[in-house]
Amino acid sequence: MPTARPAAVSLDIWGTLLASDPDFKPARNEMLRVALAPGVAADVFDAAMRQADRDVDDRCVRDGIDIGFTGRIEATLRALELPVSPLVERTPELYDAQQRLALAHPPRPLHVELPAAVAALRVPVVLTSNTGMLPGELMRKLLVLAGFGGYPGVFSNELGVAKPHPRMFEEACATLGVPAADVLHIGDNPDADVAGARAAGLQAELIRPDGVSTLAVLDSIVRACGASA
Ligand SMILES: [Mg+2]
């Protein structure tokens, strides 16, 4: 739990503030299957997509690289031993279809009180996120729907690197206009969020991805700010 008052806060998004709508990934994966792998059973494609997404996430965190929408679908097709060539020209159409599904099934705050708790912070806030399948352009729209609109974002697909790469945290601090040592980064991944932030000179707080844990840290910051105001 942070004891000193940070001058600014950087927040991870997935697992820290937001959870997927449970209907989104099945609908998105089915859309991709129909378009790219109609001969593959729905449950087989869904399982391959989820496994590819996890494997790519692990690679991104290990190497600090960003692999997005196209790269994750490509990994799925390769795992299913299907050709990846149709993906090239269909990417814009598939991306638009994903966006429509995401806006129809937007992510939710992990805890109902989180949007108000972030708004109550009396310090600058930036959202610092590895974007995966959902790029920053789409995340900005989804964040508004989930009650986290208006905060600046540092998104891995826009930087071309992913947490724990130090450039993600340097960009967060530059966006905040606050020296790294005075910024607290909060996230649920020990490698991407905590080790990454500390290596870049920030303070870091690891939370459990249950919403309650994030809320407790945010409340402690609000109390520290009140105590020192
Ligand atoms: Mg996370």
From TrEMBL:
InterPro entries: HAD-like_hydrolase, HAD-like_sf, HAD-SF_hydro_IA, HAD_sf
This protein's UniProt keywords: Hydrolase, Magnesium
Cofactor(s) essential for the protein: Mg(2+)
An example Gene Ontology molecular-function term: hydrolase activity
Any one of the GO BP annotations: small molecule metabolic process
Top-rank taxon: Bacteria
Cited PANTHER family: 5-AMINO-6-(5-PHOSPHO-D-RIBITYLAMINO)URACIL PHOSPHATASE YIGB, N-ACYLNEURAMINATE-9-PHOSPHATASE
UniProt xrefs under NCBIfam families: HAD-SF-IA-v1
Protein name: Putative hydrolase of the HAD superfamily
Origin species: Flexivirga oryzae
